[in-house]
Structure formats: structure tokens, C-alpha cells
Amino acid sequence: MHDKLATTIQAIRPAIQADGGDIFLRGFDEGTGVVEVELTGACVSCPASTVTLKAGVERILKDRVPGVTAVEAVGLDTETAVSL
């Protein structure tokens, strides 16, 4: 299972790298089907990183790797420090 996840992440990386970011597989819970990935580079400050994660990465992993139920980001501060 881990090999299939790693291969699929490697296939996704060039698209994310083209936008100045990167993605790394950090873990997989076989019991829940949750994959943990770390987004780095431009992804850290990009407001669309959550959309990329859920609509892109999660959709692809669920389609290509049986047993994947969700993808979660680790090490990514999803809160923005915007003051109004």
C-alpha cells in the first residue's frame, strides 16, 4: 500500500512543483484510510492549498489507491493572519 501511495504522490509532485510548491507523503493510517501529506514551498502561503489538497490530491489518491478515505495536511498552518 505504501508503495502505491508513494508512486501516486510522485506522479502528482510535478504539477505542484510547477506552482512553486511541493508535496511529501508523511503517513498513512490503514485503519481509517487517512493519508497524511506535507505541503511545502508556495503551498504554505497559498490560500488555494486546501482546495488543491481536497479537490486535487485527495481525489486522485482515492481514485488510484484502494482504501484511501481522506487526505490531511500536516505541518501546514491553514489559518491566515489577516487583520480587518
Characterise the protein shown here.
The chain is built from 2 helices and 3 strands. By secondary structure, the protein is of the alpha+beta class. The protein has one domain (2-73): GMP Synthetase, Chain A, domain 3 (2-Layer Sandwich). It has a 3-stranded mixed β-sheet with strand order 1-2-3. The longest helix is centred in the N-terminal third of the chain and has 16 residues, at 2-17. The chain is globular, with a radius of gyration of 13 Å. Mean pLDDT is 86; it is low at 78-84.
Describe the structure concisely for a colleague.
This protein is α+β, with helices and mostly antiparallel strands. The protein is built from two helices and three strands. The protein has a three-stranded mixed sheet with strand order 1-2-3.
Which terms summarize this structure?
2 helices, disordered C terminus, 3 strands, GMP Synthetase, Chain A, domain 3, alpha+beta, NIF_FeS_clus_asmbl_NifU_C, iron ion binding
Q: What's the SSE blueprint?
A:
Blueprint: H1 2-17, E1 21-29, E2 34-41, H2 49-64, E3 70-73
Parallel strand pairs: 2-3
Antiparallel strand pairs: 1-2
Mean pLDDT: 86
CATH top level label: Alpha Beta
Strand content: 25-35%
Number of strands: 3
Radius of gyration: 13 Å
Helix content: 25-40%
Function: May be involved in the formation or repair of [Fe-S] clusters present in iron-sulfur proteins.
Protein name: NifU family protein
GO molecular function: iron ion binding; iron-sulfur cluster binding
Domain NIF system FeS cluster assembly NifU C-terminal: 8-72
